[in-house]
Design brief:
Layout lengths: L1 H10 L17 E8 L7 H10 L4 E5 L3 H11 L5 E5 L7 E5 L3 E9 L2 E10 L2 E9 L6 H18 L6 E6 L7 H10 L2 E2 L20 E5 L3 E10 L6 E9 L5
Parallel strand pairs: 1-2, 7-8
Antiparallel strand pairs: 1-12, 2-4, 3-4, 5-6, 6-7, 8-10, 9-10, 11-12
Helix pairs in contact: 2-3, 4-5
Length: 248
């Protein structure tokens, strides 16, 4: 019922234009894989196999409880030696794994929920990546909290000129006013078309696009597709990105 209420709250909003994905360009490239694993999920082996098969440079993981934190850190370490993990007993634990060294990484807490900010160097270019799991709008109070999180994150990112990626379960949809305000405030552009829906997932099908990958004007999306996350109620996102040559 709470999930249904959240869908209704988002559906009732007046649609606002969402940014269009960028096209492919020449420049240094890297791959990002995002997955919401669903905290009670116990398909550990299958999810790890999917993560390794992604061949991503950076993996964002959400709904990371204590058990997931142990499994992920153990089984991804050999391929992804750089990690920042914030496990939680609720569904807002989060983690970031990387083949590329972090030049800086920290947890940002907005309205009680942890997000991860990482700075990386890709082919001598600085890139900022934020892994975000916004509050699910399952009630009006949670709806307001999610909007405040997006507003606070928008204020933090506004005016920054480092090429930036925001990836995660934003618990919003492209036609949501809060999403439109966030894009307008930050200058970030969505790479995820509305037909690439991620939740609730049943095999290759899903109903609405809750998971997003957004990029600043210094970055371009070459390709993006949804991927099964075994045992989860979300599909994952696998994106190939490039840094625009004259952006840095």
């Amino acid at each position: 019922q709470s999930a249904t209420a959240g869908c209704v709250l988002m559906a009732l909003q007046v649609p606002s234009p969402s940014a269009l994905p960028l096209g492919a360009v020449n420049g240094p490239g890297f791959r990002v894989f995002h997955m919401n694993v669903l905290r009670p999920n116990t398909a550990f082996h299958e999810v790890i196999a999917q993560a390794l098969a992604s061949d991503a440079d950076v993996i964002s993981v959400q709904e990371v409880g204590t058990e997931w934190a142990l499994v992920l850190s153990r089984d991804l370490h050999s391929c992804y030696p750089y990690a920042h993990i914030e496990p939680r007993s609720n569904c807002y634990g989060i983690a970031l794994f990387s083949k590329i060294p972090f030049t800086g990484v920290r947890t940002i807490t907005l309205q009680g929920t942890p997000f991860i900010e990482a700075l990386l160097v890709v082919s001598d270019r600085k890139v900022r990546l934020l892994a975000v799991h916004a509050t699910s709008p399952t009630s009006y109070d949670h709806f307001r909290r999610r909007n405040e999180q997006l507003c606070g994150l928008g204020e933090y990112l506004a005016g920054q000129d480092t090429p930036t990626i925001v990836v995660g379960d934003l618990n919003t949809v492209p036609w949501d006013r809060a999403f439109g305000r966030f894009c307008a405030r930050t200058g970030l552009r969505s790479t995820t078309p509305t037909f690439q829906r991620t939740w609730p997932a049943i095999g290759p099908f899903a109903l609405i696009p809750l998971d997003h990958l957004l990029v600043s004007p210094g970055l371009a999306s070459v390709s993006l597709r949804t991927v099964e996350v075994p045992g989860s109620d979300h599909r994952g996102l696998l994106a190939d990105l490039r840094i625009i040559a004259d952006a840095c």
